[in-house]
Amino acid sequence: MAETDGRAGRPAPRKRADARRNEQTLLDAAARVFVASGVEAPVRDIAAEAGVGMGTIYRHFPTRADLIIAVYRHQVEACAEAGPALLASGLAPHAALTRWTDLFVDFLVTKHGLAGVMRSGNPGFEGLHEYFLDRLLPVCAQLLEAAEAAGEIRTDISAYELMRGAGNLCVGIEDDPDFDARRMVGLLTAGLLRPLTG
């Protein structure tokens, strides 16, 4: 029998936290499967990756659109939260920026097939791109500003330009298994460094 907190039989906060953790586990598993097989991957593959039954996934996400939107938002939030954490970790600002762009590339790779799905007319997909920009542009700007203030990088690139450049380097990677988007984006961020003098 489920524990309650005494308020009209509501589940205890621990149970709510457990449910949130279970949902995060499902989203992480779905993201991995999307990277490997695209957003049209069978739900049974996601269930197997998460170690749960298909019914568990449908209880959390009744439709594929619900699952895709949740994975997208989960990945955006993880990427947004990573920026300040990397800056606070003691890494040099340019190193923090480079680590963050690796995470950003991972997020972009997770979006395989998402563009087509977003054109499906499902109202749930409206506003996702704006949400993505609203959450991630300020984080990228914060990382760039820290690296600029430390004198590590040039000052003539904007967060939008860096994110757009990284995004362009990830276009079409599903059609070319020999193309390493993370390496190319790494070269892009390395190119931001100021040349050594003296």
What does this protein structure show overall?
This protein is mainly α and 198 residues long. It has 2 domains: 11-62, Orthogonal Bundle (Arc Repressor Mutant, subunit A); 72-198, Tetracycline Repressor, domain 2. Helices cover 67% and strands 0% of the residues. It has helices spanning 13-37, 43-50, 54-60, 64-88, 93-110, 114-118, 128-149, 159-170, 181-190. The radius of gyration is 20 Å and the shape is elongated.
Concise synopsis of the structure shown:
The chain is mostly helical and 198 residues long.
Q: What is the CATH T-level topology of the largest domain?
A: Tetracycline Repressor, domain 2
CATH architecture of the largest domain: Orthogonal Bundle
| Low-confidence region ranges | 1-7
Using only CA atoms, what is the Rg? 20 Å
Relative helix content = 55-70%
GO molecular function, one term: transcription cis-regulatory region binding
Region (Disordered): 1-21
Domain HTH tetR-type: 20-79
Protein name: Helix-turn-helix transcriptional regulator
